[in-house]
Amino acid sequence: MGKERGFMEIERRDPGYRPVEERVKDYRAVERQFSSTQLVEQATRCMDCGIPFCCSTGCPLANVIPEFNDLVYKERWQDALDMLLLTNPFPEFTGRICPAPCETSCTLGINRDPVAIRQIEVSIVENAFRRGLLEAEPPSRRHDARIAVVGSGPAGLATADVLNRHGYNVVVFEKNRYPGGLLRYGIPDFKLEKWVVERRIKLMEDEGVVFETGVDVGLDLSSKYLLDRFDAVVLSAGAEKPRDLPIPGRDLEGIHFAMDFLSQQNRRISGEEIKSEEISARDKHVIVIGGGDTGSDCVGTSNRQGATGVTQLEILAEPPENRPAETPWPLWPLSRRDSSSHKEGCERRWSVQTEEFVGNQGRVSKLKCCEVEWDTPQDGGRPVPRKVKGSDFLLPADLVFLSMGFTGPATNKLVDDLELQLDPRGNIQRDGDHRTSHPGVFVAGDMTHGASLVVRAINDGVQTARSVMNCLKPTDR
Ligand SMILES: Cc1cc2nc3c(=O)[nH]c(=O)nc-3n(C[C@H](O)[C@H](O)[C@H](O)COP(=O)(O)OP(=O)(O)OC[C@H]3O[C@@H](n4cnc5c(N)ncnc54)[C@H](O)[C@@H]3O)c2cc1C
Ligand code: SF4
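That is the input. Now the predicted structure with iron/sulfur cluster docked in place:
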């Protein structure tokens, strides 16, 4: 344990965010980080409660949180880093963008502010990079076996990293120009600057992972090619099919899927060529349909592009401000969250259903909406929306982003060629060993469990890599 009574003497402090008026003028990271002194002080607040729900219930990676807090308190930086890397291959990503379910299950959080675990995590790893404690460590011995990983998002990167560290020869195929998946082309720079992703890719390359980018597997390479040349294939191609809103007026101009907008802005910042129609929020009133994180990223990006106003609509009822009784500690609380993007300017509306897009000369100009209430069926099934009589209203709109989640992997020739079985929700089905219905083909991340979180994708990649190693012939191990 760190300092006795530290949790009673020291209040939680967060490094905070850059001022709104400054940060909306650029795309750099909005969040600040702890200084070394603040880091030690905040780690001291961990009370080593005995049953650390932060690791067991909260963190999907089961990060060994009390131990790394104690090592930070003792300023044993290398040991703190090693403890962190024991369970988490990429703390520089999770430390920046994880919603931190560890903190909502921190014991201290029962009656005080929880330990600032996510910020401690990113500070440990950034401190390590600064001090030169984190450098390439290629494996000392190589096996003959070759593994192909399709898709370079967090799941594919984690799979490749674990296999490579165990001495397997790994080639990651990625259809985009740069590796990183949604870390690179979905999550905006103001949450995760891309040099952070590039630094990790470079480290992995120096350790022996080969990245083949600009290769759309299924189109540019056949399944036969991969199965003939590799001992195992891991699919980690994400859940790229967006949920649509097929209501009247859907074909009007000015209505886009959120990812078309977000990935375009990320490409623009990286100096990549934009091959599709340019989407700009400048001088437009933007409506974002869908109240989740992707929608919030559209809000932040629209404000930076100079939108005149942004409204975000959510069909669900507004959650309570504080932890509701249905999700008691240490569960993830279903309470209202306002992101840094919301605080930059956005009207949020709840219990709103969009019924029609209204156009003017072929372009969207208004949304016809109504309010809904949610009824719980008598059999206890999922609540269903009911239109509130007389609640119709019109909203002006120059640009609309559909951000209502994803329904599974995008149409993929590789999946068709391999005749992979899907689960009832349209994701790639797998068994308890992460194997698909095709021998030698495994699947990881959003492609199998549906759109989720970076921390879950990383965890799934790590577990899938272990399954691959267990399933390889003993001579290959
Ligand atoms: C806009 C947005 C913001 C988000 N923000 C957060 C956040 O703040 N925090 C958080 O925890 N989670 C966030 N998420 C969720 C998180 O990004 C995903 O859950 C996670 O990236 C999934 O990882 P993955 O590796 O399974 O898939 P992905 O990251 O989707 O990677 C899949 C990769 O496979 C590639 N690919 C697909 N098909 C092929 C093919 N045929 N050949 C070659 N390559 C192919 C794709 O190009 C892509 O690079 C966000 C998601 C979105 C969309
Ligand atoms: S990965 Fe996420 S849940 Fe796990 S310790 Fe880090 S911030 Fe918490």
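The chain has a mean pLDDT of 95.
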